[in-house]
Design goal:
heterodimer, A: 266 residues, alpha+beta, Immunoglobulin-like, eight-stranded mixed beta sheet, four-stranded mixed beta sheet, 4 helices, 15 strands, 30% strand, rod-shaped, B: 204 residues, mainly alpha
């Protein structure tokens, strides 16, 4: 073999080694599929602060993972933590999160969704995880905030939950156990999977209302009931006056007759 | 004035006089007691919201509304329970006892209204406490007046069952009506948002 041929062979081997090494350095972390997720949103002013807990199947804790989101988060939503998590963006929307090392098979992510209440219809920026994991969304916060999902989402209203048809009870229970989820009394969490219908709708839409907003309708009805009750009492009071006088007259007459009868007895 | 004295005597546990033995007269007393309660409740409402003119004026409507509608909500369930219990006696006996207990409770509110207003204006700490305490005192006293009236006029222990239903239903209605009518006091209380946060707060 000539020197020139040796050099060419060495260059080819080096190039092959460099090419083989390059993709390994730039490769994203392995995509992790979630077992279950809970997204707890707290409404603060116009924003929602999300605290998402994701449970993974048994895995090597030391390896970084990527969690892909089923629906890109709304523009402006930011990932606030934890330190080992990095947002993967497509333009200005978060589409995935890279996590250095999930500990104990779980990770807790924090997001802030600004301007959630500005639109007439609220769009929840809950980071729904891609895949068929059962996910629970619970929103509360300022002024007794409550989220009422769009009926088109087709969730079934059960006692204390809004459940996507097809999510069996045991899977819901398993998700709740895995994430140690205890909703506050009065909360009505949404239980769903990021199925194609949810993805096609771009996530979860609905109405985000405060207690004061919800009670407006009831207050009007109660006001009417109050006026009717007063009017009824007033009318009853007036109408019974005559009947009461008649009763009194009958009672006095009866007493007089009894007295007469007693006086007339030998 | 005659009705006021009579209702006061009934609230104090007196027997119904002979001239109140007729059904119409008893129902008239019930209506009179509830109408008088509205005025007493409005007085307390004025005092409790006294730091803000708009709140005080709104309370003239809100507090009587809460009192009257909670009482009205309790009547059907209470009377049904009385009937199902098969207790001897007249239905108007228990109705009169109930109405006079509402009368007595709101009279306590009205009597405490001046001191509630005074503290509300002069103490940021004691004012709200006294306001809530006066309401709780009125509730407790009203319940005691009701139980005593029922037992004294009915003379049957079984009557405690409809009495309990009356009280529980009224309290349950009161809790949600207070939430719907809030704010009644300027401060946010655990009753401001109804049963859900109240139970959460108690659990915590």
């Amino acid at each position: 073999m000539t020197n020139a041929r040796r050099r060419r062979t060495a260059h080819a081997v080096c190039a092959a080694l460099v090419l083989a090494a390059l993709p390994a350095a730039a490769a994203p972390p392995a995509v992790a599929s979630a077992r279950a997720a809970v997204h707890r949103g707290v409404v603060v002013g116009d924003a929602i602060q999300w605290r998402t807990t994701i449970a993974f199947p048994p895995m090597d804790d030391a390896s970084p993972v990527r969690v892909r989101l089923a629906v890109p988060l709304p523009p402006g939503e930011t990932l606030d933590g934890p330190p080992g998590a990095r947002a993967v963006r497509d333009g200005e929307r978060i589409v995935a999160v890279d996590i250095d090392a999930p500990e104990g098979g779980q990770v807790v992510l924090r997001f802030t969704q600004p301007g959630a209440k500005r639109a007439p219809r609220a769009h929840l920026g809950a980071p729904l995880v891609e895949g068929d994991a059962v996910q629970i969304i619970d929103v509360d916060g300022d002024g007794g905030a409550r989220f009422e999902p769009d009926p088109a989402l087709g969730l079934d209203r059960t006692l204390g939950e809004l459940v996507q048809p097809g999510v069996p009870h045991d899977e819901r229970a398993a998700a709740i156990d895995a994430l140690d989820f205890h909703p506050p009394i009065g909360a009505v969490p949404l239980v769903l999977r990021a199925d194609p219908a949810v993805v096609a709708r771009g996530g979860v839409d609905g109405a985000l209302t405060t207690f004061a907003e919800r009670r407006r309708g009831a207050a009007a009805g109660i006001g009417v009931a109050f006026v009717l009750a007063i009017a009824g009492l007033w009318a009853l009071q007036r109408r019974l006056g005559k009947a009461a006088r008649e009763e009194e007259a009958e009672r006095v007459l009866a007493a007089e007759f009894q007295a007469l009868a007693r006086d007339g007895d030998p | 004035m005659g009705n006021f004295t009579l209702l006061l005597n009934l609230a104090c546990g007196a027997e119904l006089p002979d001239d109140a033995s007729g059904r119409a007269r008893r129902l008239q007393l019930v209506a009179a007691a509830l109408l008088a309660s509205l005025a007493f409740a409005a007085l307390w409402g004025l005092a409790a919201g006294g730091r803000s003119v708009s709140l005080a004026l709104a309370n003239v409507y809100k507090v009587p509304m809460v009192v009257l509608l909670s009482a009205v909500c309790a009547v059907p369930a209470g009377m049904l329970t009385w009937k199902l219990c098969g207790a001897a006696g007249r239905g108007t006996d228990i109705l009169v006892s109930f109405a006079t207990s509402v009368f007595g409770a709101t009279l306590i509110l009205a009597a405490l209204a001046p001191v509630v207003a005074l503290y509300d204006h002069s103490s940021a700490w004691a004012g709200p406490l006294l306001t809530v305490a006066s309401a709780l005192l009125a509730l407790t006293a009203g319940t005691m007046v009701f139980v005593r009236g029922v037992l004294r006029r009915g003379k049957r222990a079984i009557l405690l069952v409809p009495t309990a239903v009356f009280v529980l239903i009224q309290l349950a209605s009161l809790l949600q009506l207070v939430a719907l009518a809030s704010p009644i006091v300027p401060e946010r209380t655990i009753f401001s948002h109804g049963v859900d946060p109240t139970v959460s707060e108690i659990e915590r």
